[in-house]
Fold each of these.
Amino acid sequence: MSTITLGIIGGGQLGSMLAIAAKKLQVKTVVFCDDANAPAQNFCDKFICGKYDDNQNISKFVSQVDIVTYEFENIPYETLNEINKLKNVLPKPSINRIIQHRLAEKDFVNKLNIRTTRYVSVKTKSEIEALDDFLPGILKTATLGYDGKGQHPINSINELNKINIDFSKGYILEKLIKLKKEISVIITRFDYSKYEIYEPIENTHQDQILKYSKIPAEINERLFEQSKNWAIIIAEELKYIGTLCVEFFIDRNENLYVNEIAPRVHNSGHLTINAYNVSQFENHIRAVCGLEQVQLKKISNAKMINLIGDQIIPYRERKNFDSNEFFFDYLKKEIKEKRKMGHITTLI
Ligand code: ADP
Ligand code: MG
C-alpha cells in the first residue's frame, strides 16, 4: 500500500478525475485551487483554496504533500519553480514553460523536424499587413488561450481594421489549414523509453470547444503510426514524466501537423476511463508517484460526448443508463454557457 500524498494544483474536472484515480491507488491527494467552488474538493482528501501567487497558502499546501502535479498549464512558471525547490514537481516546470507559450512550443516541435502549421510572431498591427502569405489565418494570443479563447480569425488585410486587438499581449499568426480531421494521442511516460501510449483519438470541435471524441479514429495506417511516433519523440525529448497529450490536425491532403501539446491529462482522453484497463488519469498518478507501470489493454471502442452548458440538464434528470453508458457530472455549482459540465462515454 502506498503512503504517498500527491498535491494537485487546479481543482476542475481534470483535478477531480486525477483525485478519483489516486484514491483507487491508495494515494492521498491535496488539491490547491483559486476557486472556492472547485469541483475537485468533492473527490480529494484535502482542499486548500488560494491564489496561485498566495505564498502563505502555497507553503501550507507544499508542506502537506510529497510530490506536486497540476491539471492545467497556465500556472505561473515562478510558482511551479519555487515549489519545485521544496518538492518534486512533475511534469517539470521547465516543460510547462515551453508549452505555455505558443511560440516556444511551436519552435520546439519544429526543431524535432515535426510539422506544425506555418506561424509567425506578431507584435503590431502594421506587421500583419506585410504578412499576406499567412492569410487566411488565425491570430492567437501567445499565452493563456484555451477552448478558442484569445483567437481571432483573419481572412484578409481589410478585416484587420474591423477587429479590436490588444497588441500589448504577444500574438502569433497562424496560417489556416484546410482541416479534414483532428486527432489526439495520449502518452504516459515513466522513464527513458518506458511509456504507455493510447491509440489515436478522433476529435470533433464545435465553436472551438471539443464536443466529440471516439476510438478508433477513422484514419489510415500511416497517420495512425506517424501520430504515435511523433508523440513518443516529443515525450522522450522533453524527458517527460506523467501523461501528455499531443493534438494534431490532418489536412485534406492527409498531411499530419502537430497543433499543440498539453502537458497534462486531456479532455479527449476521458474515454480511456472506460475503454482501457488503465485510464490516462491512473497512468498519470502511476508515473508521477513512481508506481508500477502496467501494460495497457484496450477493452472496447468508445465515443465520448462533452456536455456543455445546459446540455447537462436532461442527463442529470435521466434515471437509467444502459450498461455501456457512463455519465459523469463534474458537480460544478453553476451552469454557464460554453462551460464543460460533464460528459457521457458509450462503449461501442
Ligand atoms: P486552444 O488552445 O483554444 O485549444 P487551438 O490552437 O487548439 O486553441 O485551436 C482551437 C481549434 O481551432 C482547433 O482545435 C481547430 O479546430 C481550430 N484551429 C486552430 N488553428 C487552426 C489552423 N491553423 N487551421 C485550421 N483550424 C485551426
Ligand atoms: Mg486546442
Amino acid sequence: MNHALEKMKMHLQDPSIRIHNFLEVELGYDSKDAILEANRCLECKHKPCVSACPVLIDIPGFIHEIKAQNFDKAYQIITNDSMLPAVCGRVCPQESQCESVCVRGIKGESVAIGRLERFVADYHYDQKDSKCILDIHKNHRKIAIVGSGPAGLSCACELLKRGYDVTVFEALHAPGGVLTYGIPEFRLPKSIVLKEINNLIEHGVELKTNTVIGKTLYLEDLFERGYKAVFIGTGAGLPQFMNIDGETLNGVYSANEFLTRVNLMKAYEINQATPIYEGSIVSVVGGGNVAMDAARSALRLGAKEVHIIYRRSIEELPARKAEIDHAIEEGIIFDLLTNPIQIMGDEEGFVKSIKCIKMMLGQADESGRRRPIKIEGSEFEVKTDVVIIAVGTTPNPLISKTSPELSINQKGCIITKDDTGLTSKAFVFAGGDAVTGAATVIEAMGAGKKSAIAIDQILS
Ligand code: FAD
Ligand code: SF4
C-alpha cells in the first residue's frame, strides 16, 4: 500500500516550450509511476468510484491488475465497458465523477483514476500486437447510428458486441465528433482518437462519412434501407453568439469554427487550404473547456497576447481545473468579472477593439452560481485583432426540422421518454449532447451505451 496523500505527479511539457507547439502537454505515467499510484487504491468493497462512472467501469478491478503488473488484463477490464479508454483517460472530468467520491480523497488527494486509465490504454497501444478482440456472434440485424462522436461510437460498440450490423453515418469527412474537430491536438492527439475508432472499424462497424442525415439521406430513408432502429448522436455543434454589435466583423469567430479550422483543417500547418486569421492580440469570450482550448490554440498559432474574458470570478470558471492551471502557466491573461458589450471595427471591417463592462456578483441564480451584475459606468475599451466567442452551443436543428415527429425542447434538444434515450418516434433513440445540450464525453458515452442496451431489448 502506498500511503502518500498526493497523486503521483503527471509529467508535463515545459510551458515555455509547449506554447510553441501542438504536441501533447501531459506526457502520462510510466509503468513505475502507474504501479505506485495503483497502490494508493484501497479496493473498496462498496466501490463508490464505479457508481460515479457513467459507463460503470470496474475501477478497483483494473487498478488491481495494474498493481499486479497485468496491464493487458487491466485493458480488457476497462474495455468491457468503454472502447475509448485513451480518450477518456485524457479528457474526462474525473475530478467531478469517479475521483470526486474516491475514499482516498477524504484525507488527501483521490486516486488518479483517469491517469491510470490513460496509462493502461497507452501501454496497450504501444505493444505491437495490441488488437482488442471482441467475441461477436452476428445476428444480421442492421442498426443506423447518426453521428460519430462519443455517444454514437459508444452505442455502435455496444450494439456490435451484441451481434448487430452497425453503420455510422457522419456528416464530416472525419469521424470522432468533438474529439476530432474540437479538442486540440495538445490535449488529445488525433492519432489516439483514430486508433480507438479504427478498433471498432476492424471489428466490423461500417463508417459512412460525408453523409448528412436530414440532407443526403432522411431518417425515413434509413428504415427503408432495412435499418431496424436508429440512434441519433449528433451533438450540439451550433454555436451561440452574444447578440452584440460587431459580431459579423472580420476576425470574429465562433470557437467551433476556430477550433475546426485549427484541428480538422490543420490551419496551423503552412500551405493548408483552410487558413486562419492570426491575430497579435486575441480575446476569447467564455470560461469553459472550449474557451481554454481556443485561447491556448491561439497562443500556439503565434498570438502575442491572449485574453479570456469571463463575466464571473475564477471560482465559477466551468473549465476543468487542470486546463485552467495549464492556461495560467502558459501566460493566458484572465479578464474576470468582465463582459463584452460591443466589438469595434476599422474602416475595412476588421476587428480593432472590444468594449467591455465590469461586473460584480449578486445572489446565486438557477444554475447555483452567483449572478453577474453590471457595474454602471465601468465601460472600457481594449485593443484586439481577433475575438473568439465560446459562450455555448445548441444542437443543430437539421434532423429535427426534417423529421417533425421528433419532439424537441425550447433549446432544440431532442426530448427522450426516459434514460434509454427513446424519442417520440418509434425505434428512434437519441443521446449525448443532442439530448442534454453541451456536456461531457463520458456522459455522451453513457447515454450511447444505455440506448444500445434498450435497442437490443426491443429488437430481441
Ligand atoms: P459530438 O462529439 O458533437 O459528435 C456529434 C457528431 O455528429 C459530429 O461528428 C457531427 O459532425 C455529427 N453530426 C451532426 N449532425 C449530423 C447529421 N445531421 N448527420 C450526420 N452526422 C451528424 N468534454 C469532456 O468530457 N472533457 C473535455 O475536456 C471536453 N473538452 C471539450 C472541448 C471542446 C472544444 C468542445 C467543443 C467540447 C468539449 N467537451 C469536453 C464536451 C464533449 O466533447 C462533448 O460533450 C461530447 O463530444 C458530446 O458527444 P456527442 O457524441 O454527443 O457529440
Ligand atoms: Fe480505489 Fe478510490 Fe475506488 Fe476506493 S473509491 S476503490 S480507493 S479508486
